[in-house]
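Hello K.,

You asked for the raw outputs rather than the summary table, so here they are, unedited. I folded two proteins back to back in the same session to keep the settings identical. This is the first:
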Amino acid sequence: MSFDTIRTAISRIGVPAVQGHRLTDSSPPPSKILLDELFAARDAGFVEAFRGFHSPKKLASFVDKWKQTPGDWAREQVGVYFDQPLNSPGHEVVVKRLFRHYEEARDDEAVAWCMVGFDRLVRRERRRMQRYDWRTRQAWVEEALHAPRNYTHAETPASSREVRNPFTGEMIEVPIRAVRNKAGNRLFSYATRHYLRRRAWRYFRRLGFMQPERYVPGVSHALRRYRDDDFTAGENLIDNWALMHICFGKHPALTFTNAYCRLQEGHTLGELTPAPYHRELWRQTEAFDVLIGLLAEARSSLVRQWAIEMIKAHHDALVPSLMPQRLIPLFEHADARVQQFAAQAFGRLDGLGLLRIETWLKLLQGTDLTALTLICEAMLKHVSPDRLDNEQLLELACARPVPVARLGLDLIQARHAGRPLALSQLSRLSEMHCAALAGEAAAWVLSMLGDVPTYDLDLASAFFDSL
């Protein structure tokens, strides 16, 4: 049963539907019947509807039910919930109870979801501040990071209340301003936000000492969840308190207080290099597989770049032992730096000569020119032209990227020198899409088509008609 179907059914019995995570000014609270139906039906709209509830008492009872529900779906919805902004009024009880439950259950993945959500609670802003030194009588302006007042309140409509006029004694109405939350508002006071971040990171910090084999896989669940929009401004990087501990916690340019991560005087963010907390655990062989997984699955380009630098610094000797199948998702990645890393690693792999032709051809369908160049060089080195049929060679030569077309043309020329192709097959090169090599290919083919014994008007004219 879909979310729309349930919402339509509920509306027919006179219960208003939920609109996002905010209620319309004129509507009463959403129906608990709707929420129960969505949860029972495992509907994708459950979290959206749940965020529309703002009664702490009802939320507390439902969270207790949510925690006790077995199965993967109910647990996965916790991750969906913490991926949303923690700004729904009254949801303090939800956040605290879910976090405490998974902390006590020693569920590393779910605690990691919570930790990322807590990191997003703090976003400072740059503000220009006037300074004055009364001794030297000099004034100047400097920039500083400021934590804005953005606590999520219980929204109330505009109203009024009656008070007695102290001068006349008569009762008068005094308007009460409506309370409306802004999009950037978040739950909890700053003191509570800082406490939640410290407590979530403390879980993993202690895990590294007490059960070190769980630390790297555990924090990798968090590293996968950070998004690029978590770093829209430079200062947002150091606002992610747990992330900075995980990736740069031992860097000399950083200091950590109970609330914030700060750059030391005279240092910049550009100096940051991987210096993770529990560095010795990241240097172990088991961490290499986790780092490769982050390249394919991390949502943030910052985390992916950090993983690349960690591999080069601590696990470079393990790269040749990778299975080629682990690199194929990296070639298809949207991040060009990940594609380039995969291409450089691919050229160093052991046993490339045993790789299937279908796998090579799939790798050549990428879009990054640097990666394609390295793949073509590896293919030219490890693949004999005899392993490809004539049709496959012609398709490579007619490809648009220059490295692939060059590879195809070189292999065709090598094949033709030892086992000549038919002139009708060579004329297919008039369909080349690579303008940089089309002239060279046309000159080579026409030198053979133009011989008197083999001259064919139809085959030669295809090159003159070609774009």
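The second followed immediately with the same parameters:
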Amino acid sequence: MHILCTAFTQKRAMGPTGSSDDADVGSLEEDFMAIIQPDQIRNIALIGHSGCGKTTLAEALLFKAGVTTRMGSVPEKTSILDYTEDSREKLSSLDSAVCSFQHKGVHVNLIDTPGSASFCGAATSALSAVECGVLVISATAGIQVNTRKMMERARDYGIGTWIVINHIDAPNVNLPALLAQVQEQFGTKCVPITLPINGGKGVIDCLTATSGSSDLGDVGEDHTALIDAIVGADDVLMERYLGGEVSEDEVKAAAAKAVAKGEFVPVFFTNAKGNVGVSEFMDTLLVCCPSPVSGKRRVLVEGETKTEVGPSVDGAFIGQVFKISTDPKSNIKYLCVRVHSGKLTPDMVVKTLREPKGNRPGHTLRTIGAEHKEIELGSAGDIIALAKLDFHIGDTLCTGKPGMIAMPSLPKPMFALALESKTRGDEDKIGGALKRFSEEDPCFVTERGTGGELVIRGMGDLQLRTYLGRMAKHYKLEVDTRPPRIPYKETIIGTAHDIEYTH
């Protein structure tokens, strides 16, 4: 196992394209042969509008945890999470990236999602794999369109939410006004758990600090408001709190449950690029983030039977595919799977409603951006990867009788383009490329329109042009585009009299 980790480190240091510009990856302090207990796992997805700093925050967390030996940068194109050529060219995440790290004995799985509305399918699908959606807001841009949409999707799906206000060191930001806007938009349950100090050069933890001052006011008042928000989610605890009988440990134990119920939304202040507030964020993950044991329980539907799936390592294996990607060089298809119950080893047979005969995974993997390293098994609550299996996003994997776990509701693709091949005989190849893209992005659809023309649909022009660019670059397939033909339909709308002839 030591040899495997070393090989992974050396390969990653060279980057996915063979360059040495990427952040160096250090060895993970983890025994890949051991089962991680569900209560020692935290699963989070960074969500929000494009440009708010999600990827930078993720890179800062990996660096702080010792996964990387230097912090990756999006502008410098050294991020290990924005590893595709398209993402680096546009300086923006175009797909979800999965990574993990260890902090004080707890295993954290993190999904960095794209912020563009054109790629909201990947961001929405990622919610199915986590117990907590971390909404990142730029202090300079404030609440934007996709900020609100992703918060609504996370709440509609029923997972806990956090809010991170990033870029607090930027000049001329009005943090008190932004916090008031956050509470007005998302509710008074949004309570600061850290506060900026010294003009955004540091933060203070309101959960442990009971006095002092911050850039937003008195720390003692915020400490009281924070405790009120946590204990307010539990009537019994609230009565004891009013009687002065609640300890700090009891408050911390109740915090994650309050987040899972949606009764408490912690608000953090960070400057991820400057490593401000990152350590406090990591420490709070252990306290205020629901584990698979205390978070949202998924429901398995088998015909007319509905069963709540508990995160038991000893139960039957049940998992769900939430992301698919294909390595452009090796053409290997990777599936990211959230394990909800049981454990999966490479020699087991996994089935779906679509594939009832089942397939053997062959390998169970852990993902760090573009890289995958082999682990012995995946256990309840964890996020793993499988390779070379023909499954789809949303498929529920089982070793017993297959069933289905519902995915978050996805928006309907409305933007459309009609395609026509520039070269005769390329139609089948174009169809194969588009099929791959539609497998990887649940909001990218291919269909036959009026007169049999080939039509692609998506969430916006950026999404469709990105996939057409990939098709030209990786498959050498060129197409002409135009607006789709609108089907002409007619019907009888009235009654005619004095007819001289019929047709």
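Residues 1-21, 27-32 have pLDDT under 50 and may be disordered.

Happy to rerun anything if the numbers look odd on your end.

Regards,
P.
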